[in-house]
């Protein structure tokens, strides 16, 4: 019969995991990208309702930038890349960036 040692780990000894950092995806205003295109990107890439997409588009237009969403880093970077690729394919200079939340 094998002899097994069982260790009891106290609550203080357990490794506490931190939640992952969150990152904002931010759209920047420009003078050439149509508002309709921005709304389309927000609804397609970020799966936002049309009314929320319009509100964010207006924020970008009026204040120069707007937060599209807050995500884990890899998701934020992927969404930012999707926005940039769509803008480039459509011939628009729309810029998107990722910032720590």
UniProtKB/TrEMBL annotation:
Keyword terms: Hydrolase, Protease
Give yes or no: UniProt keyword Isomerase: no
Entry-linked SUPFAM superfamilies = ClpS-like
Q: Quick check: keyword Transferase in the entry? A: no
Q: Which residues form the Adaptor protein ClpS core domain?
A: 18-96
Q: Which domain of life is it from?
A: Bacteria
Gene Ontology terms, MF aspect: peptidase activity
Write out the GO biological process terms: protein catabolic process; proteolysis
The UniProt entry's sequence similarity note says: Belongs to the ClpS family.
Q: How does it assemble?
A: Binds to the N-terminal domain of the chaperone ClpA.
What the entry lists under HAMAP family is as follows: ClpS (MF_00302)
Q: Any idea what job this protein has?
A: Involved in the modulation of the specificity of the ClpAP-mediated ATP-dependent protein degradation.
**Protein name per its UniProtKB record:** ATP-dependent Clp protease adapter protein ClpS
The coding gene here is clpS
